[in-house]
């Protein structure tokens, strides 16, 4: 499968896995009219771009989002409206950095997996994540992390 298209005709699915396909991009039409998705697994595709409004129709339900093992370079603000999201996995992409407000609105986020990217700096981007407990940033290009820029709620930071 290379596009999501009409795959999600069923409007009430709690868990959706589209992992290990050949999906290349996600636009704002992909999840329109779909509701009730709590867990969305898109890992192992070749997604290189996601439009800002892609997850708008599922933003009030989505708790878990896995975008690992894709070809993402940036998020384009696509996760900002996901206010109930608790886990975001961006492992093994090509992300070099984030907009300062990239994670704004992720008030419930507790787990953030960023390992295996090309990230050079991280700090202010995660500062407002007041419930963040687990931050995994190993296998990146980060040289310095300033503790004062990290949320006080952090319990574990994995760095290699």
From TrEMBL:
Keywords linked to the UniProt accession: Leucine-rich repeat, Repeat
Q: Does the keyword Magnesium apply?
A: no
Q: Which GO terms describe its cellular component?
A: extracellular space
Lineage, top-rank taxon, reads Eukaryota
Gene3D superfamilies assigned = Ribonuclease Inhibitor
Keyword Protein biosynthesis in record: no
List the PANTHER family hit by this protein, alphabetically: AGAP008170-PA (PTHR45712), INSULIN-LIKE GROWTH FACTOR-BINDING PROTEIN ACID LABILE SUBUNIT (PTHR45712:SF29)
**Protein name in UniProt:** Uncharacterized protein
Protein source organism: Araneus ventricosus
């Amino acid at each position: 499968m290379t596009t999501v298209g009409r795959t999600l005709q069923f409007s009430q699915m709690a868990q959706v896995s589209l992992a290990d396909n050949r999906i290349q991009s996600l636009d704002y039409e992909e999840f329109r009219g779909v509701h009730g998705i709590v867990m969305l697994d898109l890992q192992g595709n070749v997604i290189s771009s996601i439009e800002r409004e892609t997850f708008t129709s599922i933003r009030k339900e989505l708790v878990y989002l896995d975008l690992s093992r894709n070809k993402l370079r940036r998020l384009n603000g696509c996760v900002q409206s996901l206010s109930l999201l608790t886990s975001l996995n961006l492992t093994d992409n090509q992300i070099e950095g984030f907009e300062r407000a990239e994670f704004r609105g992720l008030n419930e986020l507790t787990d953030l997996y960023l390992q295996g990217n090309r990230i050079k700096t991280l700090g202010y981007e995660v500062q407002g994540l007041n419930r963040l407990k687990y931050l995994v940033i190993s296998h990146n290009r980060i040289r310095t992390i300033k503790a004062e820029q990290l949320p006080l709620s952090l319990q574990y930071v994995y760095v290699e």
